[in-house]
Design brief:
Helices cover about 35% and strands about 20% of the residues. The strands form 4 sheets. It has a 7-stranded mixed sheet, sandwiched between helices. It has a 4-stranded mixed sheet with strand order 1-2-3-15. A 4-stranded antiparallel sheet has the order 13-14-17-16. It folds into 2 domains: about 140 residues, Aspartate Aminotransferase, domain 1 (Alpha-Beta Complex), CATH 3.90.1150.10; about 230 residues, Aspartate Aminotransferase, domain 2. The chain is globular, with a radius of gyration of 21 Å. Strand 1 and strand 2 form a beta hairpin. It is of the alpha/beta class and about 400 residues long. Bound molecules: pyridoxal-5'-phosphate. Pyridoxal-5'-phosphate binds next to helix 5.
């Protein structure tokens, strides 16, 4: 089918909830994609930070195929090997004590919030269920995670929302203290606010929040749905802030393109959720777990070091464009935000797309780059050359 035919079907039959780019992607290899009309693109999106091993990765595809031919799915009422093996890799590598598997980021965050509320309920009883989140955050699209998201425009239409969230300004301890009260059980934050505009939190601030949480027995909940799984040059971004969360979520990149997510809990929180408290039909699906095992095995210290170096290379390359359209470059590893001025971020994204480079937007004025972690120097140079051509 060509683009026009696919688009016609979509418009007739699909709920139109996405502001889609005007192309249909057909296939890819590494960090290069082709649309249905045969046009080639350098990919700085990875889906949205999902396809960490790029497209058509052979190890990844083979692991999924082999697992599908062996056992494609079975319920969580049984043990399976890919699941247990994945847990045995993730838990020590993150310094946590146990893991729960779900299918998506929002669901992982919901589970983390449930855990925090039950921790507090078990220890202190009712009335201590408020979670403080940060303004400009993004935590997901369910009724609860929308309310956890600290942006007013997400709190429309779908009333009544889940109660028990208050919002503090990022990087501002006074703001956090001003919304703190006896009813608080946790603070939840992204180390780098992703959808909000690729805004890294200050290390001092994150450490001060961690200290306050420890003092007041609030749980420190870290949302690493976007920043986790090697994206920033370490397995989790929190490892670069020298803190240890009570609970941390992951999703997007974990299975390299299959739907997967979950949360890791520390020793203190390991026993909070028990049989019957929480679950998921698809969570930890054997094929998704097999794919995630390939991702985990790829994220060696040497590979992660390369992610950090590639990120620096791209950020330096963008800064060296000296483009009038760039107000600044931010980020860690291969999670990069480019401040856009002189046109809107969407205009810039569309111009780059027409010239053969796929990018994302974030916040009000940020171009967001989340290339596959396996992107080559040649692919990065191609992308930078397109940026130069469009943004000079
Ligand atoms: C994408 C994202 C989510 C939501 O993940 P879904 O898989 O879309 O539910 C939550 N938190 C952060 C930080 C994200 O980037």
């Amino acid at each position: 089918m060509n683009f026009a035919e696919i688009k016609a079907l979509d418009e007739q039959y699909v709920l139109q909830t996405y502001g889609r780019n005007q192309l249909a992607i057909d296939h890819g290899k590494g960090a290069t994609l082709w649309d249905t009309e045969g046009k080639e693109y350098v990919d700085f999106t990875s889906g949205i930070g999902v396809c960490s091993l790029g497209y058509a990765n052979e190890k990844w595809a083979k692991a999924i195929y082999d697992q599908a031919m062996k056992l494609g799915h079975i319920s969580n009422l049984f043990y399976t090997e890919p699941y247990a093996v994945l847990a045995s890799k993730l838990v020590p590598a993150s310094g946590m004590a146990g893991v729960f598997f779900s299918n998506s980021g929002a669901e992982a965050n919901e589970g983390m919030i449930k855990l925090a509320r039950k921790y507090s309920y078990d220890k202190y009883g009712q009335g201590r269920a408020t979670v403080i989140t940060l303004k400009n955050s993004f935590h997901g699209r369910t009724i609860t995670t929308l309310k956890a998201t600290g942006q007013d425009h997400f709190h429309e239409f779908f009333f009544p929302f889940t109660e028990g969230f208050r919002y503090a300004d990022a990087n501002d301890m006074d703001s956090l203290l001003s919304v703190a009260g006896d009813d608080v059980c946790a603070v939840m934050m992204e180390p780098i606010q992703g959808e909000g505009g690729v805004n890294p939190l200050n290390k001092d601030y994150v450490q001060a929040v961690a200290k306050l949480c420890a003092e007041r027995d609030w749980l420190l909940l870290i949302d690493e749905v976007q920043t986790g799984m090697g994206r920033t040059g370490t397995l989790f971004a929190f490892q670069q802030f020298d803190i240890q969360p009570d609970v941390v979520t992951f999703a997007k990149g974990i299975a390299g393109g299959l739907p997967f997510g979950g949360f890791l809990a520390n020793e203190k929180c390991k026993g909070v959720l028990t049989a019957g408290n929480h679950g998921s039909t698809f969570g930890g699906n054997p094929m998704a777990a097999a794919a995630a095992n390939v991702v985990m095995d790829t994220l060696t210290p040497a590979f992660l070091q390369e992610v950090a170096e590639k990120g620096q290379y791209l950020r330096d390359g963008i800064a060296a464009l000296n483009s009038l359209y760039v107000s600044g470059v931010r980020g860690m590893g291969l999670m990069i935000g480019v401040g856009v001025q002189g046109m809107t971020h969407k205009e810039l994204k569309d111009k780059l797309m027409a010239a053969g480079l796929l990018t994302l937007t974030a916040g009000k004025d940020t171009l967001r780059l989340l290339p596959p972690l396996v992107i080559t120097k040649e692919e990065m140079d191609k992308g930078l050359a397109i940026m130069k051509e469009v943004m000079a």
